[in-house]
Amino acid sequence: MVFGRPDRGIQPQAAPLTLKLLVAGGFGVGKTTLVGSVSEIKPLRTEELLTEAGRPVDDLSGVEAKSTTTVAMDFGRITLREDLVLYLFGTPGQDRFWFLWDELAQGALGAVVLADTRRLADCFAAVDYFERRGIAFTLAVNCFDGAPRHPAEAVRAALDLDPEVPVVMCDARERESVKRVLVSVVEHALATGITARRPATV
Questions:
Q1: CA-to-CA distance for 62 and 119, rounded, in angstroms?
Q2: Whole-prediction pTM value?
Q3: For 24-51, how does the pLDDT look when each residue is reduced to its tens digit (9 = 90+)?
Q4: CB 35 within 8 Å of CB 75
Q5: Residue 68: phi, psi to the nearest 5?
């Protein structure tokens, strides 16, 4: 660079594209674990201890060892490529915190709906939420140790998902496994957006 004159051979680096994704699902399905396993920053967590006062409303069937719960959100960040950064917002799973979902969903490109085959019905509410609002999502089956394994199409049929909704198996504890889920969400959301904007052919 010549003093007082910019070097025209150096181009300013473009800011990376940032996208917002939600991570939703039933109580105890592994949302906090998923965000924490893939985040490149220390994840923000809003967890509180489960208490006796909450026992009548917190169904611990199948997750008896769980001692904490998310009461607002989890937050993490991952850079998929130099030009693509994802911000992850984990939603609370219990019914009494669902009023937060509308705030968290503002500006979201898409979502992960995390499912546990031992409590598959627990993800119905999240599936219904995103379907009603037209937010693209991937159904990710968290393969817990000892949980029954079912083919993706069997899970799709049980949840009555549309054919275009991706269904993937994952381990929420494994970074590479979670990255594959996030790539699926981004690709599906972008493809859905392109299709929605495409003019109808006569």
A1: 8
A2: 0.77
A3: 998 889 999 999 999 999 887 655 444 4
A4: yes
A5: -130, 165
